[in-house]
Write the structure tokens for this entry.
Amino acid sequence: MIERAACAAQVKAWQGRMEQALAERLPATDIEPTRLHAAMRYCVLNGGQRVRPLLLFGTARAVGLSESDVEAAACALEFAHAYSRVHDELPALDDDDVRRGQATCHEAYDEGTAVLVGDALQSLAFQLLASDAALPAAPAVRLRLIGLLAEAIGASGLAGGQAIDIAAQGRSLSVPDMDAMYARRTGALIQASVLMAAACAPQGAAHLNEALTAFATPLGVAFQIQHDLADVPHGAARGRATYPAALGPAAARERIRQLHTQALEALLPLGTVADPLRALAQWLLPAD
């Protein structure tokens, strides 16, 4: 197992790499339409953990790839995540004014620009997967990457999870129903992160997909529960169906522990090559 300090150092290095990679692939602010491009950079280059790229990099290590082999896919994932976040923050959905200490896109610019920023970031994500020269050239690999991301953000993934969330506002959901909602809303992109890295492996890593999926699914649910727990003191999730609201904070924390254990158990067949993913899971879901 990778030591905690070594994991933290690797996370910091990967985060720094991602900031540079994202900046290089975003349109420059002196190119028309300048306001749209400035807003895109404002929404993407605003810090954050870069969880999905980190998991993609960790999986790449497990299947014998370097960061440069999958960096474009990591950027595509982050652009897709940023697009979903910008749209989620709009008044029609969560109506958030602030994120990470700064004004959200529709507050810093306007609602119309925020909609276009999300649209443009989603398009840019697929453009990278289709044409970035650093990714494997094989058409089958490109199609697999595009399909994985499309599924993760569509009706069977993130968008579907958001729809369930909207429909559930003001009422409670059962634990299985919340698991299903979280697995789509948050878990789908996390699952895509590990599967997209495996898809880039030179000899293919289809035999790993079952274990990687079984790892990423509970990890995504646990990560969302942890996010909901962080929102409790601020009342940010008021009226929404969440684990803390339904079961209380203590039971929600216990559920995180159960899901964390389940995720780690899924990696057992992979042996020591999965140590980067084990370390990332511990970093994302630290023990109390």
